[in-house]
Write a structure and sequence with these properties.
The protein is an all-alpha fold and 80 residues long. Helix content is 56%, strand content 0%. The chain is built from 4 helices and no strands. Helix 1 packs across helix 4. It is globular and about 30 Å long.
């Protein structure tokens, strides 16, 4: 099953692989500088939210990762 946590884990890996901070990577993608901060991922009642599709789209466009590749990364993350 695809979960919010697994999607965020893949985004974290993408950022880490580029040796960047969440803030720098967010800005590079044209996002608000705090968009990818772990503290922004949890809703007030404790549920982890999914990143918005626009956020994922900007990350993929910036990195050159296709949506299919991203989905495979999430799937691989599910197996681990």
């Amino acid at each position: 099953m695809i979960t919010q946590e697994r999607v965020w884990n893949v985004i974290d890996k993408i950022v880490k692989d580029r040796n960047m901070s969440f803030m720098a990577f967010s800005q590079m993608c044209g996002l608000d500088k705090s968009t990818l901060f772990p503290t922004k991922r949890t809703l007030p009642y404790g549920i982890i939210r999914y990143p918005g599709f626009t956020t994922i789209e900007k990350i993929l466009k910036t990195t050159g990762i296709s949506f299919v590749e991203f989905a495979k990364m999430v799937e691989e993350n599910e197996k681990n």
